[in-house]
Amino acid sequence: MLKKWMFLLVSGLLLAMPVSAQQAFIEGVDFERIDPVVKTSNPDKVVVTEVFWYGCPHCYRFEPFVERWIETLPEGVIFEQLPSSLNSSWMVHARTFYAMKMMGIQDKLHGKLFDAIHKERQRLNSLDTIAKFVAEQGFDEKAFREYYNSFPVDSQVRKNRKTEQRYGHQGVPAVVVNGKYLTTGSMAGNYDRLIKIINFLVADELKG
Q: Which of 2, 18, 84, 138 has its CA 20 to 30 A from that of 132?
């Protein structure tokens, strides 16, 4: 009888507890603090940055969660993506991301490139194979090649490498909130929980 009473008491306390308290996450376990803080692209907003690689199966599985989360962005929050070049072999996809962005086609081909690599098992890991893929989607292959090899793309990728070093992450996908906090899929345990951690950190930043 006593055990039953204690169970009911604890259950009642949990139900009465604010949601934020029930879903509190722990620094050093669920996320890490970045020190020093990395400057973001917009100091007036809470900037959430996803670090990813097109060839990463974990990033591919995380993508649907990201897409749904973007639809619920609160006011004052912006989302950005940073193509990782932690590994030198990832550089091809990092340059591809910015070449497509400069052409104004990144939004159109982002999901298609992910699908082609992971769903259709295409080996898109070189300038030639990706340029051919871009052309097959109806876009200018020559322009893509020129942007891919351009100075602005080169500069952006170099800048990203320095930013990643400051983030201090060891793999992808990784998510940085306002240049202050880093969380990853491995820290969260699953992608649904990763989204909750991001929301927790965003909410804290919105409080100022």
A: 84
| pLDDT one-digit tens code per residue, 130-157 | 999 999 999 999 999 999 999 999 999 9
Rounded distance between C-alpha atoms, residue 100 and residue 110, angstroms = 9
User: In the chain, where are the structural domains located?
Assistant: 33-203
For domain 33-203, say whether CATH 3.40.30.10 is its number: yes
Pull the structure tokens for residue 58.
């974990």
- Is the per-residue pLDDT at 27 higher than 60? yes
- Map tokens 């259950």 to a residue: 11
DSSP result, 19-81: HHHHT---BTTTBEE-SSPPP-S-TTSEEEEEEE-TT-HHHHHHHHHHHHHHTTPPTTEEEEE
- Cα dihedral value 10, 12, 16, 17, nearest 10: 20
Q: What is the pLDDT of residues 92-129, one digit of tens each?
A: 999 999 999 999 999 999 999 999 999 999 999 999 99
Contact 208, 90 (CB under 8 A): no
pLDDT at 23: 62
